[in-house]
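input
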Amino acid sequence: MQMSRLYAPTLKEDPREAELASHKLLLRAGMMRRGAVGLYSYLPLAWRSINKIEDIIRDEMEAIDAQEMQVPILTDGDLWHQSGRWNDYGPELMRLSDRYDHEYALGPTHEETFTDLVRNELRSYKQLPVTLYQMQDKFRDERRPRFGLMRSREFIMKDAYSFSATQESLQECYEQEKEAYAKICKRVGLRALPVVADSGQIGGDTSVEFMAIADAGEAALVYCDDCGFAADTEAATAAINLVDGEAGDLEKIATPGASTIEALAKFLNVPEAGTRKALALVDGDGKPVVCFVPGDHELNDVKAEHAFGSYHMMTEEELKEFGLVKGFMGPIGLPDGVRACYDVSLKESQWWAIGANEPGYHYVHAKPGRDFQIADSDWVDIITAREGDVCPKCGAPLKAARGIEVSQVFQLGTKYSASMGATFMDEDGVEKPLLMGCYGIGISRTLQAIVEQHHDEHGIIWPVSVAPYEVEVIPLDVHDDLVWPVADKVANQLLGLGVDVLVDDRKERPGVKFNDADLMGMPYQVVCGKKAIKNGNVELKNRATGERTEVAIDEVAALLAQKVEAQRA
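output
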């Protein structure tokens, strides 16, 4: 491809709309353009990379006998009513009606459509398991689209659905997809961790996300270098470095002004982890709850929603209404009608420093079972795991990072098949609901995640496996009778060896060409200048390392073909 004919309008300055480095670079390098808020056009360079990502996905799906197909983007609202998600999904679901006032949705995912597709076709255990997938545009009416392709209203996604007769078969499908997703991440050049995740609006009991490690990631996660454990902080059950209070008889002490954990810890001369934080909320049924958590940890909103439904933290007025004292709440002497809950990380704690439900007073040496009672149903998992917590698998200290979710696998079980009547006949002649799995990859998000992990101050650094072009040939003077023939020769030799080649044939100054080459980030650059050519050489630059070497004109194509082949996915 010649750059004079390539539609890749580059920008010299960072666009005002962009915040993340990857978003800025995809716009500046002429790879995409915004049409409206949350809507983007993929220009030729980005589209070549997307096609390569999709080809890698197809390779791995073929390896596990998943079958590619396509269903309509427009989904029948009746199916969403059958599954119960028409209202549950929330305002992110893009709804519309046709001229006959029939309801439809632009699919954000397609569990309902695929379940409807197979429920009259997969009728016997002999036909199972089956895994079907597609790669298609999806839609979400994001309240606040931002960060380019990371959170947009229209995006490209690979979604797959498995249908099994037994839990063992579902588990096998799930493990196959999970392994395939790990391979896909590696092949596209992403450092990604498989983390235990919350299933969110998709549902199901078992879920793992693949998180591309990046400081700009929206998701917080914890991981262990020793054993490989990793989890989204919304799903990780925190095993804390427990700091217990001193043993002794229950004692009520004056703690004037110690209405915060920081102030109380300072007053008692203990670490914040040695105190117990009280958090007052109103649960989804409108009932008051006070939750007790380690003093150095925070309530996790997603976990709290699982535990308490659509809750909210108490206002000042509600605290007064329920007879609670802000900053001095404790489990001893809570007002009637107020439920107490305790984070599971505190199960081994024997001696607590807690509020006395009286302004300016706390209890020390409070002992569960002696001074207050905790029923089994009172234990909840509601805090956010953090760096320094204990790995639940091996006991090593956890590290913290941020990540970009690029893919996720779910075990749905019978969540959709039961509600939608998708059943099969088992070998005993009994009608049973299909057991389902769901497996998604954000293809457009993966594209930007790759750039987020692979860039420097000059531009993008594409991994060979997904680069729009693998080599860029840069003749410094296209009018020179010595330079242009060499550049043309090298380009044609590379094409003959199966290498994707971009030739900068523009009548631009060398500095402009070098800047654009680094901005667009093809893995290798072949610089054809008169001085080197007179010595029988061209200059070869490795974009990732910046290393420059002179290579004989007649040898450079074969050398690059070898390098590229070794790095292709």
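quick obs: The two ends are 22 Å apart (CA to CA).
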